[in-house]
Amino acid sequence: MDQGSIARILKQVSGGDDEIQQLQKALLDYLDENTETDASLVFSRKFYIAQWFRDTTMETEKAIKSQKDEDSSEGTHHAKDVETTGQIMHRAESRKKFLRSIIKTAPTQFSTLKMNSDTVDYEDACLIVRYLASMRPFAQSFDIYLTQ
Fold this sequence. Notes:
By secondary structure, the protein is mainly alpha-helical. It has helices spanning 3-12, 19-33, 40-73, 78-104, 107-112, 122-134, 137-140, 142-147. Helix content is 78%, strand content 0%. It starts with a helix and ends with a helix. One of its GO terms (cellular component) is Scc2-Scc4 cohesin loading complex.
């Protein structure tokens, strides 16, 4: 991964403190801008929104499950884990809220809400997709799957 390019994209894209959300927004802007030239990008955009929403939901469910497991075991790190779980829940809710706002926005309205659509070109969009894909659990544990 080219961290320098990711950092450059994050600097060009103004937004909140969540870098994943900023990259998602930049990618959605790129896809929305180019839907006129390639109709399949409409489906790609919808797929990414649905997948990110699902990932956020799964992350929330895992946090709740781990909290319940910790409650039953009453470990010494309980207070630290609850705080971490609360942070995960808060971040997940903010991402869900962001994705819901994107879903409710019509594509024609979405184009007027763009930050800077010319900040992301095709190569940057490919880099964003690779970076976001590398953050998924399967990509992070790929070596384990190959070893098994």
